[in-house]
Amino acid sequence: MGDCQRVLGIDLGIASCGWGVIEVRDKAGSIFAKDGKPAVGVRCFDAPLVYKTGKPKDAQRRSARGQRRVIRRRRQRMNAIRDLLHRNGILPDAKDDALARSAWKFRRSYSPAPTR
């Protein structure tokens, strides 16, 4: 048993948790037995679902978290654009409302002149 290793495997699901221990010898595994009983098991429990709809209970929270991520990423992109325009002298300042205040002036001053 000197060159034998025990490996614990765990399987986590939304309504169960399973586990097993194997002994590994020379790339061949066998189920570890303690007192003649295999070291495997599972625990089942009720899934966290809404009774009437069958949807996960955390669906609303997950949706709100996704929306917060979208808003945060949009804000980061706008800040990056604002800083880039300010560093290149196109935007007078890099405040949060700089693009909103000067959007039409920006369009007017940097759009190509109409050609005839």
Q: What report would you give on this structure?
A:
The chain is an alpha+beta fold and about 120 residues long. Strands 1, 2, 3 and 6 form a 4-stranded antiparallel beta sheet that branches. It has a two-stranded antiparallel sheet with strand order 4-5. The chain is elongated. The mean pLDDT is about 80.
Topology summary:
Blueprint: E1 5-12, E2 16-25, E3 28-31, E4 33-34, E5 37-38, E6 40-44, H1 59-87, H2 98-110
List keywords for this structure.
116 residues; alpha+beta; four-stranded antiparallel sheet; two-stranded antiparallel ribbon; 2 helices; 36% helix
Cα-to-Cα separation, first versus last residue: 91 Å
Task: Kindly state the number of beta strands.
Answer: 6
Count the helices. How many? 2
Report the average pLDDT across residues. 78
The value of Rg in angstroms is 30 Å
Measured by DSSP, the beta-strand proportion falls in 25-35%
Quaternary structure: single chain
Structural class: alpha+beta
Q: Could you provide a short overview of the structure?
A:
By secondary structure, this protein is an alpha+beta fold. It has helices spanning 59-87, 98-110; strands at residues 5-12, 16-25, 28-31, 33-34, 37-38, 40-44. The chain has two helices and six strands, in the order ββββββαα.
